[in-house]
Description:
The structure is a homodimer. Chain A is of the alpha/beta class. Helix content of chain A is 47%, strand content 13%. Chain A is built from 15 helices and 8 strands.
Amino acid sequence: MIYDFTYQNPTRIHFGKTALEHLSEELKNFGSNILLVYGKNSIKATGLYDKIMGILNECGKKVTELAGINSNPRYSQVMAGAKLVRENNIDLILAVGGGSVVDCSKGIAAAAYYEGDAWKHYWEEQCPIENKIVPVASVLTMAGTASEMNTGSVITNEEKMLKLGRVFPFPELCPKFSILNPELTYTVPKIQMVSGIFDTFSHLMEQYFSGDDDCTSDYLLEAVMLSLINASRKALVNQHDYEARSNIMWCATMGLNKILALSKTQDWEVHMIEHQIGAYTDCPHGVGLAIVSPAYYRYIYRYGLPKFVRYAKNIWKVDGTGMSDEQIALEGINRLEAFIAELGIPQTLREVGTTEEMLPLIAKSTVKGGGYKKMDSEDVLAVLKECF
Amino acid sequence: MIYDFTYQNPTRIHFGKTALEHLSEELKNFGSNILLVYGKNSIKATGLYDKIMGILNECGKKVTELAGINSNPRYSQVMAGAKLVRENNIDLILAVGGGSVVDCSKGIAAAAYYEGDAWKHYWEEQCPIENKIVPVASVLTMAGTASEMNTGSVITNEEKMLKLGRVFPFPELCPKFSILNPELTYTVPKIQMVSGIFDTFSHLMEQYFSGDDDCTSDYLLEAVMLSLINASRKALVNQHDYEARSNIMWCATMGLNKILALSKTQDWEVHMIEHQIGAYTDCPHGVGLAIVSPAYYRYIYRYGLPKFVRYAKNIWKVDGTGMSDEQIALEGINRLEAFIAELGIPQTLREVGTTEEMLPLIAKSTVKGGGYKKMDSEDVLAVLKECF
């Protein structure tokens, strides 16, 4: 079934080895004041910073910089960016980096001209946008979040120990354009590559595990899972395999530009739990998701058994002969766990610095939702203990 | 591999039983002069015409009408619409009907302010657009072409006996919004329903049959094929099965909004051949495609054998044990043919009024291209004879 939806995603994607050549033509559509947002040192080390500054200068742009965005971007960084936008009358926020830099840039775009407590308004209370928004665009250096083609903005408030996600309205907060060159992802450390891969894989599962009817979106989500598994195995052998890395990058974008989620109610509880693990430990997002996923799905699969059987058969090719549906479903989750091991991702919360004392705090502060099963704090705590 | 591409598709889709409720909010974004384009009598018979006229009147719009668009829209109708646009200073062309009405409306949108021979400029010579374009939007009553979310405009020039397709530039000619209510497709006669289904299926195969590398787009195209086969079988049992019809409608849109074709070189020769069959016989588009497809694929499969083996296994679940690759590939095409029979579509050119004398004329006038094999007139004639 395709349930009622409205969808519009106007982001222009320039993909491939030549993608950066489109930057100067895109810049013509915006005024001269650019806020360049990026992370730590990597774009300087790879020479990308110099290339982009060269293009910006050639186009006669006046560049203000906001550097040092964390892999879990901070609300304090959003506020710093918002101040720069106002002070410099910024016409375009250009994010150069991974999803965290793009997420942060969207936060800045929404918060810059909001005259109150933006954290409370946009992330805690999820209010609609009524103030002026600054356009955002991106040059992506890491595949995973799909922030380059959606309106998501996950921000960590250090003071409040909260990591909250906001999906801003489409199409207003969609990046105006995004430049995706898979070669720019080669230099990402392996742990970040596999973290991004699993982030994408988790997005697909979060969208997939709801509903038990016949829905085109489920077939599409399965397709991207299959392609991603195949490409990931090749990238593990050779991180510079362009075929593999280009497929991974496009799987990531398709994985959460929301066109595959249409009409799905979706789950997202793994993300909610990981957000609070991230708030307490600052672990890479995809790593946290990978730790929680097998434990979570073993906790809830009974409530959506037919879908977990379909998943086991279609994604992990579980034969199923002579097995009960329960056994088939569990074998699917076992193979997911084996894939996580194959990616070389840590598989316990201990390994990313979670302490036993944190578990009830994480459980309590996690946003509760869920797909097949509605979760409460006790449920979340049980899942956390299982993967501790 | 994902090869370099640029993609932007800003069409806003309102999908579902309540989709038409969005029409009045959308109309606020346009001036008061509307050109309403529709087909023969069906939208009056179903009451849709009255509903839409009611909404247009409530919104204070001044409506000019262009009725009677053929299932193969004529260039003379494009010219008539273009004249109405200029005379009435039209602000929005609202297509209400199937893909032919939307295709015709896009032709009008491009041709209205072109001051020369638009047929030659846009369809024969495929020139870029430099004149003013009128915005187009649609209310869809038949699933198949995906014209509601792309820039395609296939027009028949009766004088010249040519049916030519034009893919106008994205995003300029993308409909501003499209309203898709699967219930509006219930009243389409069965032959039109299955023609639309096969049109979509053919779009997917035309995009799929090229390349032999590992490409995410191929997985996505397979996903829509699988979903469409499943939904079609349910719709054959009950044309009012909303689950089936809503999936078919969304498969059709996803099948050619081009997001699944990214980086694919594609084939499209079945469409080229069908266009000239259509020009000579006026047969429903999807029916012509179904007649040509098995013969065409049996003619070319050797040139793309690995992909035809993959297709047989993944789409038609050919087991393949003890079979050669050739046998597996051919069995896949056999099953495609069986699916066409299951849909109840005619399987020979004779049945749609093609005469033996027409065959060399069709072969000669067909636009030559192809995916795995480059086709010439003799090749096309051989295919035509095979399905005559």
